[in-house]
Amino acid sequence: MPKQTWYIAAILSLLAVLAFVGLTSWQRSSELEKIRAEMARTRTLAEQAAQQFQSANQKLAEKESLVAQLEQERQVAVAAQKGLEDQMRASLQSKDITISQLQGKLTVNILDRILFDSGEVLLKPEGEQILLKIAGVLSQFPNRQIHVVGHTDDVPLSANLRQRFPSNWELSTARATAAVRFLEEKASVDPRRIGAVGYGEFHPIAPNTTAEGRALNRRIALVVLPEELAGADIPPPAGSAKPKPVLESPAPPVPPAPTPAPTTGPTPTPAPAPPAPPAPPAPAPNPSNPTPPPAPSADTGPFKPVPAVPPAPVPSLEGPKKNP
Length: 324
Known about the structure:
By secondary structure, the protein is an alpha+beta fold. The protein is 43% helix and 10% strand. Among the domains are: 10-78; 92-233, CATH 3.30.1330.60.
């Protein structure tokens, strides 16, 4: 075999090897680019997940801080409520005064015989001293609101009392109002913190069948609300900034009525009006009884009188009738 053939075969083999190597390198480069793109996408997703995890941890920390703050406030409120109850019990040591607490509300029940004489609404000196002690304790808790509630038994009022108080409603309300006025005028309690209510005989705490039960029902109750219930009811003090009024948004304009689209078809032609009925023929002159023309009058002069023309018949609006 000649040498040229060997050279050509060697060159072709070398070219085939180079082509195979180049194709393999290109495939590996393409796969490497895909791997790099996948790694970049994975890195981006990992960074996003890390940011979301960090944001979630931050929100969790904020929630935990808020829960801790609320728990601390609850403990402070419980301690303040316990302190209020303890001070009330220490200041009001009497068998005619009972103190109870339910759902954060502290209730001080004072029998009416301490505050008022029978059938009266004027406070007794002993009752004024009790209210002064209560006001002294409440002054240490300025954010509490007090409801003064009057109660009676179910015994109807006497004839003399009915001249002043028609029923137990008016008597209980008048006694509660007297206590409120004393707390405001004599004990310097903020009037925005107190209110008077009269329940009459309809909220008893004991049966009215015995004298002892009726005595327990005739009472004045001072209900001290917790701060979370009383704070929203107390208006801001005078001179504070007033809340901006909420402006009402204007009403949306009323859209105009839609205009009917013009029709593209031919304009309908109105139906023709029915023809008027023909006038009846004039009556023919009767030759047997001719009517002579009227003689000329002296007032008409040379002018001849115009004969009267019979009126034409009025056509009917119903149109011509058809024969059956």
